[in-house]
């Protein structure tokens, strides 16, 4: 049974999406305008349990051959280990498949042990890593096998 209410990002939910993103990815804080720009090219959503903000997600539509989509789910630390990540991830992967994805990738900041464990236990393997200039932790790209 689904317990999350998953909403697309619009003017009412943009700040919720941004607050979760910037808390979990502190090395890449986004301004409201940068989030608006992403709304134009990605499927951004926020998730609530009742009316409590639980997390946010990004689905980058598939590109290339094979059609490869990127799915990133983020759950606030205080709401983790209750199954929300699993439910939200399944919904985000289903959305990517509806958009035609043949291959699913995700991106995890290397300083997020919860994210790495979750990705690996859900069948993802590392295929690439990128260290932004001046940053301490790389972003890992993992692919669903
Ligand atoms: C990855 C992430 C989304 C997982 O969110 P979550 O809500 O904790 O996910 P779940 O609760 O579904 O699963 C996490 C763990 O809790 C366990 N769990 C699930 N329900 C549970 C419950 N009721 N009681 C105890 N443990 C539970 C799961 O088995 C899983 O265990 P594992 O880590 O040993 O595999 C979260 O850690 C996060 O936002 N990380 C940073 C962002 C990130 O890296 N995102 C990319 C992920 S692909």
From TrEMBL:
Residues 7-143 form the N-acetyltransferase domain. GO terms for molecular function: acyltransferase activity, transferring groups other than amino-acyl groups. CDD domains: NAT_SF. PANTHER family: AMINOALKYLPHOSPHONATE N-ACETYLTRANSFERASE-RELATED-RELATED. Pfam families: Acetyltransf_1. This is GNAT superfamily N-acetyltransferase. It comes from the Bacteria. The keyword Transferase applies. InterPro entries: Acyl_CoA_acyltransferase, Bact_Acetyltransf, GNAT_dom. Keywords: Acyltransferase, Transferase.
